Structures are given as C-alpha cells and as structure tokens.
C-alpha cells in the first residue's frame, strides 16, 4: 500500500549550489567571491574549511550526472557562480565560465534531466562587495546584466529559473547576525540589502519577460513553518509578527502588497529605512511563474516584550544537528499557509531534507533517520496537494554532502555520501529510498 501518492507529472529532483560543490575556485578565470574571502577570516567557518575543493564537481560533473541518472532524477537544481561569468561582478565577461555551464546543461539534457538554474546562491563577486555589495543599489543593476547574459546563453535549453536563493538568509545572517558572508552586523545594512535583493529579483523577472524567454521564473525563499505557542491573542499576534519578519517581508512585495507595515516601522525606528525609490515596488511585483519553497522545520512562537514583539519557544521535539526541530509536518504546513496567503501560486519545493553530524562512514551511509524524516515531509506535502495546493515538483537538499557554509564540512545533507579524502560519492540508504519514490511517484 502506498502512503503518499503524487499527481501525474510531478517532478522529482535534487538541489545543490555552486560554492557548496564546485571547488576549482581559481580555475578558468573565475573571480573571487565573498565566500572565498569569508572562509579566510579566522573563526568564521568551522575547522577553517573553505570551498576551494568542496566536492570537486567542477571536474566531476560528468560522473555526477551519471549518478543522477542512476538515481532516476528527473530534475536538477544548481546555481551559477556569478564570479565565473563576470569575475568582477560587472565589466568583462568570462567565456570560459559560461562554457562550464554549457557542458553541464547539455549533459543534463542528454541525460533527460530537467535543469533549474538559480542565479544567485550567495557567492557574490568580491569586487561588488568592495563597492558595498547588496547595500549598494548598483549591485541590483549588475545582477540584471548578469541575468540577461545567462538568459541569452541558455535560451531554449533551460526552462526553469530561480532568481535568488533565500534573500532572508542573506539579509539576516549575512548582514545582521554576521554569521554568513560577508559577515556584516548592522540594521541599516540589513534593510538596504533586503530591498536591493528584491529589486534585483524584480529586474531579472522583467528582463526575462522583455527577452520573451520560454519557461518559468520564480524566487526561492527560506521558510520556517511558524506555530503559535497557544491560541491566546498575544501569542497568535506574536506568530503573525514572526511571519511578517521572516515570510511576508520576502513574499508580500513579490505579490504586489508592499512591505509589511510592522517591518517598515521596526527599521524606520532604528534609523534604517528601506531605500525604496519610485517604481521599485512595481518592479519587485513583476508577476512570477512559481514560488520556490525551501523548508526544513517549524518554530513555535510566543509573545515577548522585547522591541520586536516575539520570541521562539524552547524546542519540544528532538533536535537535528543543524539545530532544527524534527518536525516533518512543517513542509505541508508551510505550503498550506503560503498557498492560502497568496492565492494558490504554483510551487516547487526547491529544498527540503535533513543534515547529519559528520561521523563514521558506515553509520552515515545507513541513514534511517533521514529516510523517516523524508517520509514525514513527503506525507505532509502529499496531504497539502490533496487539499488543492498547486505543488509541481520537489528537489531534495542535497544531491550529495557538501560545504555547509559556516559549518564547513561538519554537517552532511546529502542523499549521497561524499568522501572528502578521495572525493568518491557513495549513495546512502536514503538515495535508494528516494530512487524508489521517484519510480513509484510516491511511497
Ligand atoms: C539552505 C541553503 C542551502 C543549504 C541548506 C541546508 O538554507 O539554501 O544552501 O545550506 O540550507
């Protein structure tokens, strides 16, 4: 008997990101990214790890496509490293960088795997950071040029595009908490960064339309499913506030609703207003074709009298190595919430999965916990689809263990194990499980 069945034509894939897997950071004219810089600042990344080699996907992409094929993947989401295309972010174009993605895209198409390109998954060219990075409005304009270059190059070959991966994380963790590149801690910068990221997104969507590109374009947001601690008015209001800061801030403007008033007020009171210029909100609201949903967990929210008005309740479920609660109902819950809130947009789940702490290979290959969590996530997702949510596909994070940002190589999210000594890939039990899910369109 099947436990979760998906609609005909549902797309099954896996996701990765350039800096997390490619390595070859000095090769073929690639410029420096903010992650190359960040990794070299003492104490920023666990064990002083860098993406210099990572999974060496830059040289092993052929084998990686063979692996995807072996698992029966129908789709693959990856990101393009902006500094491979424009080593200085703007200015001279690096043909060799484009050629790498030509080979990859053609290889995927030959294997019958549908490519989805993320234009920005966090590796900003360092040269742009030197001019203020996302706090500088011009970065959004350079992004449009970069996006147009890729659209032209991959016209007709790539039909699914994601503008940005998780602007929330870039703004909050890169520019407020400072734990991700570029490691800034400033309210003023955070508001500017959030706005310019969304502007960059809107400019790219407009360019996609101007260029009459075939296919679909959307944005991928980081989403936690928020649950009120209880249904007292204070806790319900606190939960809505958490949604304003983390979810609505990055969805409302896309759907033409402007920024949440609570968020505008918070930043204005701190002398850090959103640098909105005339026409920006219309640009940001250029209609998208789908919403990319990344979800890993839930959080329980309570009222708090600190200025922001909410805090997270202590976890009550077991904790994953990344600090997430094991709450696989979160995916279906978030999808239901976002579908209700924004008029049932087409959705791709562009990331979902779970991370293990590094440890003995034999244990990591036998990843029963990941399988049970994936079953939980997929059961919830199938439920949401049955209730009418328009979910078109699912990309597991991640194809293979890779560089997990500030955690270095200490957290492993792959359904395939990466041996960082030999760079050999070994499918985990979860990869076999996932291959069966794909074959049966459910489990
Ligand atoms: C997401 C990121 C992705 C990976 C997973 C675990 O926030 O988009 O690159 O780090 O978390």
Largest sheet: 8 strands, parallel, barrel
Q: Tell the overall outline.
A: globular
CATH superfamily: Glycosidases
Bound molecules: beta-D-fucopyranose
Distance between the termini: 8 Å
Tell me what portion of residues adopts beta-strand conformation.
15-25%
Report the strand count: 13
Structural class: alpha/beta
Our count of domains comes out at 1
Going across the biggest sheet, name each strand in turn: 1-2-3-4-5-6-8-10
Number of helices: 16
Report the radius of gyration as a whole number of Å: 20 Å
**N-to-C order of helices and strands:** EHHHEHHEHHEHHEHHHEEHEEHHEEEEH
Helix proportion: 40-55%
Commentary on this structure:
The protein is of the alpha/beta class and 443 residues long. It has a single domain (11-440), classed as Glycosidases (TIM Barrel), CATH 3.20.20.80. Helix content is 41%, strand content 17%. It has 16 helices and 13 strands. The strands form 3 sheets. An 8-stranded parallel β-barrel has the order 1-2-3-4-5-6-8-10, surrounded by 6 helices. The chain has a two-stranded antiparallel ribbon with strand order 9-11. A hairpin with a 6-residue loop joins strand 12 (416-418) and strand 13 (425-427). 53% of the residues are buried. The model has no long low-confidence stretch (mean pLDDT 98). Bound molecules: beta-D-fucopyranose. Beta-D-fucopyranose binds next to loops. Beta-D-fucopyranose binds at residues 17, 20, 165-166, 169, 222, 294, 351, 397, 404-405, 413.
């Amino acid at each position: 008997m099947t436990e979760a069945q998906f609609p005909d034509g549902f797309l099954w894939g896996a996701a990765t990101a350039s800096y997390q897997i490619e390595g070859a950071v000095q090769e073929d004219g690639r410029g420096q990214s903010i992650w190359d810089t960040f990794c070299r600042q003492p104490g920023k990344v666990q064990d002083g790890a860098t993406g210099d080699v990572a999974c060496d996907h830059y040289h092993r992409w052929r084998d990686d496509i063979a692996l995807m094929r072996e698992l029966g993947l129908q789709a693959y989401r990856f990101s393009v490293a902006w500094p491979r295309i424009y080593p200085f972010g703007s200015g001279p174009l690096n043909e060799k960088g484009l050629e790498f993605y030509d080979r990859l895209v053609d290889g995927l198409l030959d294997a019958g795997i549908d490519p989805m390109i993320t234009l920005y998954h966090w590796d900003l060219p360092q040269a742009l950071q030197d001019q203020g990075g996302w706090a500088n409005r011009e970065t959004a304009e350079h992004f449009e040029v970069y996006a147009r270059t890729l659209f032209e190059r991959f016209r007709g070959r790539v039909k699914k595009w994601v503008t940005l991966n998780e602007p929330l994380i870039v703004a909050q963790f890169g520019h407020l908490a400072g734990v991700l590149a570029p490691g800034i801690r400033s309210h003023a910068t955070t508001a500017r960064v959030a706005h310019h990221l969304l502007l960059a997104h809107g400019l790219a969507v407009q360019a996609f339309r101007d260029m009459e590109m075939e296919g679909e374009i959307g944005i991928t947001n980081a989403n936690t499913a928020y649950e009120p601690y209880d249904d007292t008015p204070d806790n319900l209001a606190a939960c809505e506030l958490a949604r304003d800061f983390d979810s609505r801030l990055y969805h409302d403007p896309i759907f033409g609703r402007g920024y949440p008033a609570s968020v505008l007020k918070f930043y204005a009171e701190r002398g850090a207003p959103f640098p909105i210029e005339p026409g920006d909100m219309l640009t940001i609201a250029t209609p998208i074709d789908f919403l990319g949903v990344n979800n890993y967990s839930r959080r329980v929210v309570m009222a708090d009298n600190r200025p922001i008005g909410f805090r997270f309740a202590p976890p009550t479920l077991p904790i994953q190595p990344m600090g997430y609660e094991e709450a696989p109902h979160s995916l279906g819950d978030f999808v239901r919430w976002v579908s209700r809130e924004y008029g049932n947009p087409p959705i791709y789940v562009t990331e979902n999965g779970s991370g293990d702490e590094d440890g003995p290979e034999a244990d990591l290959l036998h990843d029963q916990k990941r399988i049970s969590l994936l079953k939980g996530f997929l059961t919830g997702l199938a439920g949401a689809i049955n209730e009418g949510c328009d979910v078109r596909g699912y990309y597991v994070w991640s194809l293979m263990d890779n560089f997990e940002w500030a955690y270095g190589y200490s957290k492993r999210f792959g359904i395939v194990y990466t041996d960082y000594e030999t760079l050999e890939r070994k499918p985990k039990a979860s990869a076999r499980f996932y291959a069966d899910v794909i074959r049966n369109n459910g489990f």
